[in-house]
Amino acid sequence: MTGTELQTLLSDCTLCPRRCHADRSHGERGYCGMSSTIFAARAALHMWEEPCISGDKGSGTVFFTGCGLRCCFCQNHDIAVGDRGKEITVQRLADIFLELKEKGAANINLVTGAHYVPHIIEGLEISKGKGMDLPVIYNSSGFEETDTLRMLEGYVDVYLPDFKYMDINLAKAYSNAPGYPEKAKLAIEEMVRQTGACCFDNEGYIRKGTIVRHLILPGHTKNSLQVLEYLNRTYGEKIYISIMNQYTPVLEHKTYQELNRRVTRREYEKVLDHAVSLGISNGFIQEGETAEESFIPAFDYEGV
Predict the structure, then answer these.
(1) Is the separation of the CB atoms in 43 and 298 below 8 Å?
(2) The dihedral formed by the CA atoms of 235, 136, 73 and 167, expressed in degrees to the nearest 10
(3) For 168, which of 1, 99, 204, 273 is 20 to 30 Å away at the CA?
(4) Residue 236 gets which letter from DSSP?
C-alpha cells in the first residue's frame, strides 16, 4: 500500500462501522482514539489463547492501542481508550513480526487492529518480503466494516472475532453500538468466505479458518444462548466456537451493577449445556480460574 493510498484512506476515515470521517492523516483522532500514528502496548509470545493458537509455542501477539467499539466492561480498558501505548512506525511493525517469528511464535496475532488495517497490510508486505511466513491471525471485536475486511484478503489466514451480542439493547447499553449484531453477522460472513473451513497442521495449530469467540456476561445468559443458536444455525461445522467464562470486572460500574461480578459456574454450565443440546462439537471451553485478572496481559511495551 502506497503512502498516497494510506493518506487517502485516513483523511476521511471509514475503516470501522463508526464511520466517523475523521481526518486522521492530519492528526485528528477518530472514534477509536487514534490518529494515523501506530501505537502498540505489547508484542510478545502469548500463552492464553485457544490451544490451537497458543499451543506450547505461544502466539506472537501484537496488542494495538485504540478501539472502535469501546465496551464499558473492556478487559483491556487501558489500551482500548488509548491510555497505554508506544509510538511505532510501519517499518518497526514489520520488524516486530520478524522478531516474533525468531522467538518461535506459532503465528502472528493482531489484536484490535481495525483502525490500523492499512498500516498492517504494509507491515505484512515488508515482513513477508523478508521471510515472515507464519499464519496471520486477525483478533477482532467483531465490530468490523466488511469493506475493510476485504482489504485483508490474502493477508489474513485465521479470523478470531468476538460475537458479543445478539441483544440490540445490550449492544447499545454496554458498547454504544445498537448496530453491533448486524455488523458482526456481516463481518463473520465475510471472514468465513475468505478462509473457508478450519484446517490445522500436524501439531494441532490452526492454519486457516474462523474461530468465533463469545464472552458470557454476568446476568445475560439469554444473550449467550441466542449467539450460539445463530452461529450454529448459520455455520454449523464450518467454524469453531470458543465459549468464554473469563469475564473479569476491571472497573466499578454504577449504572450497570450486574457487571461488577464474575460469571457464576451455574451460568457457564447453562450455556455449555445449551451448546451440547445444539450439537455444537467444534468448539473450545474454559476450565479452572480463567476469570482472574492475572490473565489480562501486562501492557508494559514488551517487544514494542
Answers:
(1) no
(2) -20
(3) 273
(4) G
Burial of 227 (0-12, 13-18, 19+ CB in 10 A): buried
The Cα 151–Cα 161 span in angstroms is 16
Strand runs labelled E in 128-258: 136-140, 158-161, 199-200, 206-215, 240-244
Tell me which residue has cell 444455525.
233
Residue type, 135: P
For position 293, what pLDDT does the model report? 47
In angstroms, how far is CA 277 from the centroid of its own chain? 27
Q: How many residues does the chain have?
A: 304
DSSP 57-115: T-EEEEEES--SS--TT-TTHHHHTTSS-EEE-HHHHHHHHHHHHHTT-SSEEEES-GG
d(CA 270, CA 293): 23
| 29-47 mean pLDDT | 97
Cell digits for 21? 470521517
Rounded CA-CA distance 138/246 in Å is 20
3-state SS, residue 229 = helix
Measured CA to CA, the distance from residue 41 to residue 78 in angstroms comes to 10
Q: Assess contact for 139 and 110: CB atoms under 8 A.
A: yes
Report which residue type is found at 280: I
Per-residue cell: 157: 489466514
Q: Are 209 and 53 in contact (CB under 8 A)?
A: no
For residue 249, give the H/E element and its range.
none
Res. 119: pLDDT tops 80: yes
- 8 versus 237: which is more confidently predicted? 237
pLDDT at 55 over 50: yes
Question: Strand 206-215 and strand 199-200: pairing?
Answer: antiparallel
Residue 140's DSSP bridge partners are 161
Rounded Cα–Cα distance for residues 161 and 137 (Å) = 10
d(CA 292, CA 86): 26
